[in-house]
Design goal:
By secondary structure, this protein is of the alpha/beta class. It folds into two domains: 3-76 and 151-234, Rossmann fold (3-Layer(aba) Sandwich), CATH 3.40.50.300; 86-149, no CATH class. The chain is 38% helix and 26% strand. The strands form two sheets. Strands 6-7-8-3-9-10 form a six-stranded mixed beta sheet, with helices on both faces. Strands 2-1-4-5 form a four-stranded antiparallel beta sheet. A hairpin with a 2-residue loop joins strand 1 (3-12) and strand 2. Helix 3 (92-102) packs across helix 4 (108-118), helix 4 (108-118) crosses helix 5 and helix 5 runs parallel beside helix 6. The radius of gyration is 18 Å and the shape is globular. The two termini are 32 Å apart. Bound molecules: adenosine-5'-diphosphate (ADP). Residues 12, 15, 17, 35, 37-43 line the site of adenosine-5'-diphosphate. Adenosine-5'-diphosphate is lined by residues 12, 15, 17, 35, 37-43.
C-alpha cells in the first residue's frame, strides 16, 4: 500500500477534527477527498504529510510510519497546501532550485528543467512568481511538490480560485501525474472528483461516510450527486 491509515483520530482542544479514520490507498490511484468545509479533509492530508501528529492511531507512507520514520516517510510525499504559500518575489527557476536544494537533490539544474517541462511551465519559467496567473502559480506549487519525485502527491484544494480555462488545464495535469503515482486531492466540488478521480472518499464531521470507486458510485441510486447532496443537507 502507498498509504495506510489505521484508526486515526485528531483532536484540537475539545474539537474532534477526525474520528477513527481507516484507509488503505494503493499505488497509482487518484483519490478524491470530498466533503463540505470543516469536514476534516485538510487535517487528514496534513497528518499524511507529517505536518502534525495524530492524537491516536497510525499513518504510514510507502511502508514508513510518519512518526517513527519521519524523514523516510516525508521523502515519499509531495504536498501542496491549500493556499500555495510560494515566494512571490522569487523567479520560477530560482524557487524550484531552492525547493530541490531542501530535498538534497544532486543534479538540481536537470531536475528543475525536467519539472518545468513536466508541469508545462516552459513559457513562464523566466518570470517572477508574483507576475504569474493563479493557474501558473499552481503549476509552480505542483512542481515544488514533485521535485524530489515522491511516490505520493497530496493536493489540498488544488483548483480553488482558478478560472474555467485554468481549471481544465490543472485537472488535466493532475490526471497526467496520477498515471504514475498516488494522488490524494481534496475538494468540495463534486464535478472535480468526477473528472479527475478513480476513487472517492466522502468525509463529513471527521468521519468517512462513503468510500468507493467512482464507477461504483454511478451504480448507486442517485449516484455520487445524491450521496454528496445528503452531506450538504446534513451540514
Ligand atoms: P476541511 O479541510 O474539510 O475544510 P479541516 O480539516 O480544515 O476541514 O478542519 C476540520 C475541523 O478541525 C474544523 O472544525 C476546523 O475548525 C478544525 N481545525 C482544523 N485545524 C485546526 C487547528 N489547527 N486548530 C484548531 N482547530 C482546527
Amino acid at each position: 500500500m502507498a498509504i495506510s491509515i489505521q484508526h486515526v483520530s485528531k483532536q484540537f482542544g475539545n474539537q474532534m477534527a477526525l474520528s477513527d479514520i481507516s484507509l488503505e490507498i494503493p499505488s497509482a490511484q487518484v483519490l478524491g477527498l470530498l466533503g463540505p468545509n470543516g469536514a476534516g479533509k485538510s487535517t487528514l492530508m496534513r497528518l499524511i504529510s507529517g505536518y502534525f501528529p495524530a492524537s491516536s492511531g497510525s499513518v504510514s507512507v510507502c511502508g514508513f510510519d510518519v512518526l517513527d520514520e519521519p524523514m523516510q516517510a516525508r521523502s515519499c510525499v509531495g504536498y501542496l497546501p491549500e493556499h500555495n504559500p510560494i515566494h512571490t518575489d522569487m523567479f520560477v527557476r530560482e524557487y524550484l532550485e531552492y525547493a530541490a536544494g531542501l530535498h538534497g537533490i544532486k543534479n538540481v539544474s536537470s531536475a528543475v528543467n525536467a519539472m518545468i517541462e513536466k508541469v508545462g511551465l516552459q513559457p513562464e519559467a523566466h518570470k517572477i512568481i508574483g507576475q504569474l496567473s493563479k493557474g501558473y502559480r499552481q503549476r509552480v506549487g505542483i512542481a515544488q511538490a514533485l521535485i524530489h519525485d515522491p511516490k505520493v502527491l497530496i493536493l489540498d484544494e488544488p483548483t480553488s480560485g482558478l478560472d474555467p480555462i485554468q481549471l481544465v488545464d490543472i485537472r488535466a495535469l493532475i490526471r497526467k501525474v496520477g498515471r504514475e503515482r498516488t494522488v490524494i486531492l481534496s475538494t468540495h466540488i463534486m464535478q472535480e472528483v468526477e473528472e479527475v478521480c478513480d476513487r472517492v472518499v466522502l468525509i463529513h464531521h471527521g468521519v468517512i461516510v462513503a468510500d468507493d470507486a467512482l464507477s461504483e458510485f454511478a451504480n448507486r441510486p442517485g449516484g455520487l450527486e445524491s450521496a454528496f447532496h445528503e452531506l450538504e443537507v446534513r451540514s
